[in-house]
Amino acid sequence: GFKSDEQFKTQKEMILFLKENKFKVNEYEKKCLNLKEIKDKIREIDVLRKKVDYLTDGVVIKVNDFELREFFGYTNKFPRFAIAYKFEAEEYSTILKEVVWNVGRTGKVTPTAILEPVEIGDVTVQRATLNNYDDILRKKVKINSRVLIRRSNDVIPEILGTMDEDNGNEIEIKMPTHCPYCNSELIRDGVHFFCTNTLACTPQLTSSLVHFSSKNAMNIEGLSEKTSELLFDKLGVDKVYKIYDLKYDELITLEKFKDKKVNNLLNSIEESKNVNLENFIYALGIKNVGIKTAKDLAKKYKNLDNLREATVEELLQINDVGDVVANSIFEFFNDEYSKDALDKLLEKGIEVIPYKEISKSEFTDKKIVITGTFEKYKRKDLEDIFSQNGLIVQSAVAKSTDFLVVGEKAGSKLKKAQELGINIISEKNLEEFLKSIIEK
How many Å apart are CA 164 and CA 282, to the nearest integer? Predict the structure, then answer.
């Protein structure tokens, strides 16, 4: 194989390139010029999808022109240049055989229905979603009852209710009282039940490790769910801060852990010790706090010490933070166990980088593209520096691009930038360029 820095002007060009290079590309794609053509194509695919040997849940409608895509940009979560149209859901009936209760990262205990197998769209369905115990009561579902299920968007089906058939064998689903994993007594909060045994409940601990190491959190590569379970079972990593105590001699004894894998994991753990405030807040796994709220908290409080002293009244002043979220944050930073765990985490040498207000400068909102490899810098580090100093990092060179940062094996992005007269920053001049941005 080979790596190409090929640039495309349109989606059609990219699809053609993939076809020419023997990639498998879905044949059901068409360039539409107006809304009527889009609707006609959707109806056509809705008929055709029942004849193909793979599952579909809808149609993605995208802007064809890549430069126009750059103009539209992204929201916090989604591209503005694309939208998904979902097909209507299919409904079937089957028998509810059992309900199992699962425990997540926050300790929330949720029910899953085990069904008598039923074929839906060439797929054998054996599980369905039941949101909570109140949902079970409202839908009047019981063990051995015939239930109506809906499979929308080709994802895990949900139970809509019973078919009102009393077969005489129905059994009431009991309200959970103890954790199905550690047998701790559950507490109820609203419609949900929670296991409060954060010290020894395996699903909570392994899920916490995975969340803590995720890309938007501490960005520790190699800490999958399977690896987290292994660290918990074999090395006793039952708190997130214990990740930073891991040693080579311990890890090398684990199954499928060779020298390279161990060193990569240890290096990634060490690199994670320097972390931006918003990423660290998100890594803590505070209930109801996603990455957007973490960024909002970082922007308001600037550093971790200020956030730890936050009051509910202050938190409520933040846009999109209501009573539930404000109380979750306040309770986390005032809970003795959480405070102790946080202190121990910081004792491991973690440096939480304070939020830096981006001041207006000649670089504010300038668009920059990175290409090639660099001897001194990782691409992710460069992206962070540019973003933190007000620049907008683009994935492709366009007329709107202001700078192209070039490393080894730059490819066609360099050629296009030269054709467009874009400012080019070589690795030789990169350090000086970074200095001018940071000291602006």
Answer: 45
